[in-house]
Predict the structure.
Amino acid sequence: MTINKQKLEMLNITKNFPGVEALNDVSIVANSGEIMGLVGVNGAGKSTLMNVLGGIYPSDSGKIILNNNHIQLQSPNDAAKNGISFIHQDLLYFASQTVAENIYMTDLPKNDLLPFFISKSKIIEKSSQVLDMLGSDINPNSLIEELSTGEKQIVEIARALATGSDIVIFDEPTSSLSIKEKEKLFKVVRKLKSENKIIVYISHFLNEIQELCDTYVVLRNGRLVGSGNVADESKNNIIRMIIGRDLTASKNIFKETSNETILEINNLVQGNLLQGIDLTLNKGEVLGLWGLMGSGRTELIRTMLGLDPMESGEIYLYQDSKTKKISPKQLLKQCGYVTESRRIDGLFISEPVWKNITSGNLNHYSRGRLNLMNSNAEMQSAQDHIEQLKIKTPSYSTSIENLSGGNQQKAIFSRWLDKKPKILILDEPTRGVDVGAKQEIGSLITELARDGASILLVSSEIEEIVSLSNRVLVLRDGVIVHEASGEGINEVNLMSVALGKEQ
Amino acid sequence: MQSSSFNLSQIQHFIFSYGFYILLFCLVILFGFISNDFLSISNWTQISIAACFLLAASAGLTLVLITGNIDLSIGSIAYLAATAVYLTADYHPLVSIMVAILVGISFGLFNGFLVAYLKMNSLLTTLALMIAYRGLALVITGGSMHYIGKPLASFGSVKFFSNSLPLIFLTSLFLMIFLQIVLKKTRFGTYCYAVGNNETAATRIGIPVRRVKALAFVISGICAAISGLLLSMYLGEITTFTGRGMEFQAVAAVVIGGTSLFGGRGSVLPGTMAGVLLLIIINNGLGTRGVSPYIYPFVAGALIFIAIYLDSIKNRYMIKK
């Protein structure tokens, strides 16, 4: 075990992606035996900075210095050679093999007597040593697929330790862990610290940073905005650094909406991701659902619509002045749903615009016993929608892949306008669209609500949530921690609650 | 949730893991009751001869499936190896054996190169090569039957223990034992499972994924060649039927034996061995009972269907966990 102090410096790191300045002149210093918390909102540059250190993206300029040696990191292999391990959110493991094999996969010990053979007993022995060192009681003989997510994570940390890593990077490691597993993980991370490793811990949950880390680094918009010892800084100050002063530009125009409930969800549970969600959606309102990545926003939507299994929970739909208990799948049929990533699960990418527009409402356009399609009616209605929403396309028969992101998104909106559902669920409706289209989609949402549709809006852009919502629910760790309405809907309030400020 | 479905999932797990061994056992008992000849030693000698060709070929194929690929060219490689035996019939038998195995190595290496290094889809690549290799062998043999000469053919009928244990079966059995040890005890074997489990992870932590995949194909080629060699030794001749359809029987046997089509799990022993025996025993048992031979493909097809269905359920069940 090395006792001498190690030091990692990343100096003046700059990284640009096409059209985006991801990192601008960021410098950090990390020492062994310290846990450094790297905080910031989504898109602040945390992951990019660590991907530079992990060799995943080489930086455009800047230096990385380890123990006074300038090191080059062009690939994950380079990083591994320099003793840098990156524990990603998506874990790297081999499900049908044992814990021991997973830990020593790249360094399988040889059998002393038989050439070519590996020594199972040695792998087991060495793995139990590493697991002991981490204070974990995982049996090295068990198969990975029998373990929980938290245990798999610990196996991956053990692998990093077994390969002799001195620097361990954690990227949002607690996002899918239960509270108990979280405590176990923290114990392991502290153990690593006592082994004199350099630890970088990425998180946007300040509670975790305060509990675990010695130093902190705050990034905002790709720039370093603050760093120091966690103990010296109050939580509220760090929150202020994360959020910045350039806030409160957008304003919420508060409107009265009816109190007529259309949808009620009681005690929705799904593993650790959603721990008992209650919500009601009123007629003609835009209900914003706000939270940071990993808070359970998308999971909530997917679970209530039956796309992920629901462990428990009840859904009530109020229709024709009657209350009906329905299943998630039935709710999906009643709703319009604009998905988070339109290219993956929204568009029929090589089909023409008109088919994309009418695809949500095909029953309406089919006739007779054989359900033959009336394509002329489809095209006519598609043309109407194109004009109504000013979708920029050469014609309705153009393949939708040729349209810009904003126009594709408008086409998806018109799919649901065509069906006229009472409930519309929008997951990141303006992701990857230009400013003009963003505004048009925004006013469309307001208009739809005014016409009586009830809208559940999920967005990672706080301005959007603030400017469009009548009410906002804040999610954190799979729980609704706050409901804001009226004056309460402002960026500082919502961001602070999401980051973990106590009420 | 876990505690309530604990018993159920244990039963599921048991069926997934041992279902086909139970089925195999029951079949042996059943055929033993309904047929007088089935349990006789001479019948089991017959079964071991009928099984040994498929055993050899399936053993190598198991490795390819574990790495997450498939090799449909094995029947044609068997035919090519048998052709090589015929071409070298005038030399010492050892020369023929060496040349046959060399054929297996070369064509296996070519398969492996295309799939691992050029990243071609293994199903379609080896399907095309299955046709091409067979065509090549047909050109060489002129599409007719050939005798392979006395010395080598005489090995094919050697039996030990008062004429009950054929040499060719022993060869296959040793091959299977050898490959099972390779899978479970060597670094290469461990890498095979790792690549099949999670190719991205394997690449990222520095396993030589391409080499592992290519080597699995080479081993599959060698095993196919040995299968063709045994077949030509046993029959003393090669015909255009040599190795034809063997690839599909082998895939079926491997999957029935519990090796996943999705890669990452499976075994040569007992898995693939049990799969082959199940297919052969059904054929033999129906035969000794005097049932119409035309029922066999139907029964075998149904079994393969069940095996693949179970594999997909198992896979879904594992992912959900």
Notes: Residues 290 and 368 of chain A are 45 Å apart (CA to CA). The mean pLDDT of chain A is 86. Chain A touches chain B at residues 76-77, 80, 92-97, 101, 105-106, 108, 116-118, 120, 145-146, 159, 311 (CB under 8 Å). Chain A has 18 helices and 22 strands.
